[in-house]
Design a protein that fits this description.
Flavocytochrome C3, Chain A, domain 1; 12 helices; eight-stranded mixed sheet; 467 residues; single chain; 21 strands
């Protein structure tokens, strides 16, 4: 008899499976993807945001709980459950020794990852190495793993889990952890959520999926229709401005455009629409996908000059290069006169200051709308470069409501043997916005909680059955 069934194959699912197995439970993990695509969006991650009160191996200085909380509060605009957020923050301080025990290795912040040496612990070999380490550890511990095993529905007795279905196959277990991701690769659901804009466009038609093609949200929709308590706005997501030439799925980190704060961003009408220097890039990169999604045709262009070259992580595709602004406008297909007017107005508004991309410096614009409040320097040094941007969806925030036990809730009551972790519940902490590495913090914390509690529940179910 299976004690703990884990549905999913990414970070949260693996943490749950490992924790349950460590506590003596017989565990089966069902991964929807083939083996070569295992790991969900985790394979594209790089780091984990970590609270720490003093320097720790790859982390410098300190990043205390209150600062982490304030960073999260700022990006979510208060749309977060503080108790659950602080649970995640505190758990992030203690999880790395456990991760190491399962083969995960860390390295210092990458040279192209600005401002993260203090806040984020990077995985040696990236997310793919972390996924492989966890799977090796799970196999060594005796966790059963099945690939190409998507679960579209489960059997419930009220709020109690009974079985899951892989096709027509019924898989019975004492307890279950749902960690099957969001619905970001379900174009129809994205279209339904975003609807049409005032221009008659379906914005979701122009979204690119940064991560796995297997997160279609089938099980999430089943649970919502089955009456599970849910939380979150279906249009809210970890959505990043990425290279418009990125593949439809699995482009990952290398398609992100990280030079936004070093220049200006214009829409297809060659007009700026937001403050590019609002805050440090790790705290603001995830707002730009949604901003681009709100522009005509869901496209925008990041424009820099030679002064920015070498100051950001280069994307996989080279930028469009030109020696003059009119030439760049023509190459990008932008209205030339308006483009030149926009850049010249920006240049004239830049005020002298001491440029420092590692600080919230005093290089700003004056009398310009929208302003650029930091890192504002004239674009006056050829060559000029432009990158076409599209919204890149990483994961969606609509999910199942839970509490500190990671239990799924029905009409406010906890299920005794059904738990949730990862993207399927991230909306409890992320009502909107994002800050680098926090998705892995949430998945690791709640994956471990769900796995541990599922093992306890399975033991109790066994005792109840024997009685």
């Amino acid at each position: 008899m299976i004690d703990v069934l884990v549905i999913g194959g990414g970070n949260a699912a693996l943490c749950a499976a490992l924790m349950a197995r460590e506590r003596g439970a017989a565990v089966l993990l069902l991964e929807a993807s083939p083996r070569e695509w295992r790991g969900g969006n985790t394979q594209h991650t790089r780091n984990l945001r970590c609270m720490h009160d003093e320097p720790q191996d790859v982390l410098v200085d300190a990043y205390p709980e209150e600062e982490f909380w304030q960073d999260l509060l700022k990006v979510t605009g208060g749309q977060t459950d503080e108790a659950l957020a602080r649970l995640v923050i505190r758990a992030s301080a203690t999880c790395r020794p456990w991760m190491r025990s399962h083969g995960v290795r860390f390295q210092p912040s990458l040279s192209g990852a600005l401002h993260t040496a203090r806040t984020n612990a990077f995985f040696m070999g990236g997310g793919k190495a972390l996924v492989n380490a966890y799977y090796r550890s799970a196999e060594n511990l005796g966790v059963q793993i099945r690939y190409d095993a998507p679960v579209e529905r489960i059997e419930l007795d009220g709020s109690r889990f009974v079985a899951a279905y892989v096709g027509d196959e019924r898989v019975v277990a004492r307890t279950c952890v749902l960690a099957a991701g969001g619905f970001e690769s379900n174009r129809e659901w994205l279209r339904e959520a975003w609807g049409q804009n005032e221009r008659g466009e379906y914005p979701a038609d122009n979204f690119i999926i940064r991560g796995t093609r297997f997160n279609r949200g089938t099980l999430l929709r089943f649970m919502i229709e089955a009456g599970a308590d849910c939380i979150g706005d279906p249009t809210q997501a970890h959505m990043v401005a990425i290279d418009a030439r990125a593949p439809l799925y699995d482009g990952g980190i290398c398609t992100r455009i990280d030079c936004v704060s070093l220049g200006v961003v214009v829409n297809r009408d060659a007009r700026r629409f937001y403050n590019e220097g609002e805050d440090f890039w790790p705290k603001r990169y995830a707002i730009w996908g949604r901003l681009v999604a709100q522009q005509p045709a869901q496209i925008a262009y990041s424009i820099i000059d030679a002064k920015a070259i070498g100051r950001f992580m280069p994307p996989v595709f080279p930028g469009t290069r030109a020696n003059t602004l009119p030439e760049l406008a023509r190459a990008l297909g932008l209205p030339e006169a308006q483009f030149v007017k926009t850049i010249e107005a920006y240049n004239a508004a830049c005020r002298p200051g001491t440029f420092d991309h590692a600080q919230l410096d005093d290089c700003r614009t004056e009398g310009l709308e929208p302003p650029k409040t930091h890192w504002a320097r004239p674009l006056d040094t050829p060559p000029f470069l432009g990158y076409a941007l599209r919204p890149g969806v990483t994961f969606t925030y609509l999910g199942l409501k839970t509490d500190e036990t990671a239990a799924v809730r029905f009409a406010g009551e906890r299920s005794r043997n059904l738990f949730v972790a990862g993207e399927m519940m991230a909306g409890n902490v992320l009502g909107r916005g994002y800050t680098a590495g926090v998705g892995m913090s949430i998945g690791t914390a709640f994956g471990r909680i769900a796995g541990a509690n599922a093992a306890v529940s399975a033991s109790q179910e066994s005792l109840d059955a024997a009685a």
